[in-house]
Specification:
Oligomer: single chain
Helix content: 25-40%
Order of helices and strands: EHEEEHEHEEEHEEHEEHHEHEEHE
Distance between the termini: 28 Å
Number of strands: 16
Number of domains: 3
Radius of gyration: 24 Å
Number of helices: 9
CATH topology of the largest domain: D-Maltodextrin-Binding Protein, domain 2
Structural class: alpha/beta
Strand order of the largest sheet: 4-1-5-12-6
Largest sheet: 5 strands, mixed
CATH architecture of the largest domain: 3-Layer(aba) Sandwich
Strand content: 25-35%
């Protein structure tokens, strides 16, 4: 049984699985998706609950953030890290924030104050480690709107900090960084057939993420120009080189970051390269 995150991460997860080779069909009225793999049966649940259901064995494997594994103190096997989110391929972080005009400058200034957050246990452990006694209350959402009228500070998740800045909040400290993890039930991980399937899922999801922002590039060039091309264009390091019918020419095939292609292609052309082809990638396995 595969647990898939419902909510903000749902669409990004479906798209990641599609790039990895699995088509997941959904219905707005159902929490049971269709998956084009007879070995997989799935359910959508909130990421906040995922680690508990994996730990209890309802799911053999699931995806959720490191934050919710720690918040729930779940005893699960972490298979791999998957760095993606609803908006970007970057990690998110939980930050302690206060209004811009607040006199609070450090976490120590929160002594006797009130903090709102969705991650009660993570926040309480953080404050305890800092030796600060503050009241921590659960926030059901729109946490950034609760300061300064309802609470003195918040602990909230952010990718870029833009929402905090828009609400005129100032970050005091970063509490933790979180990314998506593929997690497995410990008993399921000991079953060879299930473990092999989970490892295959991990491999293909990771390879799909490796292909993000990368493209393949093919080109033909004169054999005596290859060394100069590689020297002038470090992004072309370790290309695959194949002979052509005309033995004075070779074909080069390589993978590189998409953002550098716009700079490389004109240089390749200036070096006499021909038949330059850029093509998209679904997976890159290292």
């Amino acid at each position: 049984m595969l647990g898939l995150p419902k909510g903000s991460m749902e669409q990004a997860t479906i798209e990641l699985f599609a790039r990895a080779g699995w088509k997941i069909g959904t219905s707005s009225r159902s929490y049971k998706p269709t998956i084009d793999d007879d070995e997989l049966d799935g359910r959508f649940v909130r990421s906040q609950e995922m680690s508990r259901y994996v730990e209890l064995g309802f799911f053999d494997v699931g995806l959720c953030g490191r934050d919710w594994i720690e918040e729930n103190d779940s005893d699960v096997h972490e298979v791999c890290e998957l760095v993606y989110s609803r908006a970007s391929n970057r990690s998110s972080r939980y930050v302690l924030a206060v209004p811009e005009e607040s006199p609070i400058q450090t976490v120590e200034d929160l002594e006797g104050k009130r903090v709102a957050t969705e991650v009660l246990n993570i926040t309480r452990r953080y404050l305890n480690d800092k030796g600060v006694n503050a009241e921590v209350e659960f926030s059901w959402g729109a946490t950034e709107m609760k300061v300064p009228d309802l609470v003195d500070a918040i602990v909230d998740i952010t990718e870029t900090g833009s929402s905090l800045r828009a609400n005129r909040l100032r970050i005091i400290d970063t509490i933790m960084t979180t990314t998506v993890r593929l997690i497995a039930n410990k008993a399921s991980w000991q079953v060879e057939a299930k473990r092999r399937k989970i490892e295959n899922i991990a491999l293909l999801l990771q390879s799909a993420l490796q292909a993000n922002d990368r493209v393949g590039l093919k080109l033909n060039c004169r054999k005596d120009k290859v060394d100069q091309l590689i020297q002038d264009l470090p992004a072309l390091r370790n290309p695959t080189i194949s002979r052509l019918a005309d033995e004075s020419w070779v074909a080069l095939d390589t993978v590189l970051e998409e953002r550098v292609v716009r700079e490389i292609i004109p240089v390749l052309k200036a070096h006499g390269a021909e038949g330059i082809i850029e093509y998209p990638l679904n997976k890159v396995v290292y």
